[in-house]
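FORM 7B - TANDEM STRUCTURE REPORT

SECTION 1: FIRST PROTEIN
SEQUENCE AND TOKENS:
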Amino acid sequence: MATTSDIRKGLCIRHNNDIYKIIEFLHVKPGKGPAFVRTKLKSVTSGKVLDNTFSAGHKIEDVRVETRSYQYLYADGETYHFMNTDDYNQITLQESALDAPGLLKEGEVVTIMFNTEDNMPLSVDMPASVVLEVTYTEPGVKGNTATNATKPAKVETGAEVNVPLFINEGDKIKIDTSSGSYMERVKE
């Protein structure tokens, strides 16, 4: 058992008969009254995000987890296949376990978190950013770089991303996987 002083980003806890990962937290010590910890929890089974406040010193049940590197192989409908980079064992996960399945390119290495008690996969952590090629977008016009106007573009994985007007088909762009937004154009 842990207490609220052990709360940190990425900690997995058992709360309301489910396993949650702490994605944000803030220790608050008001001038009047007891201290508390405001958290944002993400269910590793359903993906739902929930705000919760724990009073200071509250006991929380932490869950031991282990992370392993896996390489994304392919998708078969809503089933995604991954291979362990150490022992080459393969596992399959449902699309709901992934945060941004549309940005996952074959061969990409991800980190999968496992519950050490039953060896069940809990969540998939994508790299912070991915580089993908634009397969379709309206043609860019020379001189359209001064404004923050955007247009939709389809990338090689099939996902749609809003990009600046100067991006053309064939350009490689860096995409933030947490928000799914354009970061920058990548030069070869």
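SECTION 2: SECOND PROTEIN
SEQUENCE AND TOKENS:
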Amino acid sequence: MPDCVALIVAAGRGQRLGGEVPKQYRMLAGAPLLRWTARAFLDHPEVSAVRAVIHQDDRALYETAVAGLDLLPPVKGGASRQDSCRLGLESLAALAPKTVLIHDGARPFVDAAIIGRTKAALRTHAGAVAAIPVVDTLKRESDGRASDTVDRAGLWRAQTPQGFRFEDILAAHREAAGDSLTDDAAVAERAGLEVALVMGGEDNFKITTEQDLARAERLLGGAMGETRTGFGFDVHRFAPGDHVMLCGVKIPHEQGLAGHSDADVGLHALTDAVLGAIGAGDIGSHFPPSDPQWKGAPSDIFLARAAELIAGTGGRIVAVDLTVICEAPRIRPHHAAMVERVAEILGLERGRVSVKATTTEGLGFTGRGEGIAAQAVATVRLGGNV
């Protein structure tokens, strides 16, 4: 019987924040937000196991976000947060933990002290809620005007985790099924359980808006170690052929590019940029053209290997920026596919990948149509472990 299981509720859609994916899967300092949250509980010595409650449509996003983390299999959530919590608790019934800590997936800055205080309070109380006292003057609004000043004495702002003795909160949630209560403490209070308040923290905020996400980036900026920048440049001349490979995309053309591999000048420049950020040499030192095994090889192998070297240092690629320099072929019709492919190889969201194209106005070897050049910049953050 585990002593304490953390249940991370991450089944919401995050509509107020917007974006292409639910907010718990948005990138925060190079890693999905949910990963930061999960790590906080996995790293705590008093938490036996961690399980997430996710939306049924988010399984692929979830698997990517928590890859490599030792979590219990996720469980599907319900139509409301209350439903999701109940379903998560039901999924833990077979484990029968003594206590459970329920936490919002979009609160990545919960620290070990808050987790510890919440769990410790369960020795003497049926439930405990991390919260902070209200210090601002409160006003009641009426038609856009302040109509009354509310006495703030004894008022606290509830956060998570909210901890409970498992059997008590499971029974309370079963009784409250169908109600619309705002948090698990309200479910416990409805069942007559005594819930203690323990001190939370100002940094333990819930990410709801873009401003919250920007604040989170600032908080992590000083704690994420060193930021490195690498530069890459590559050139390939034209040769007989009917297509060129650029950023992993096959583009029909009246000529090909000469090279030992597939001559993808874009991915070669990016590979050198990534390697340069950690002082790991260049593409030729890892994949020498004299080695026959690389003859005709797809260049995504090279870029993926560079990304693995970054991960091996405990670092992560934050963003890449590539400029292709040529008179032809035209890059614009293939821009979206190139961004998509680079993002796929590096495991980045598309907003962190930039691919641009320019010409040299007819000057130089690219202007004369003799070949294609590419230059790239990679930003890498070293330090931290998410």
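SECTION 3: OBSERVATIONS ON SECOND PROTEIN
The chain has two domains: 4-221, 226-382.
The chain is about 30% helix and 30% strand.

SECTION 4: SIGNATURE
Preparer initials: ____
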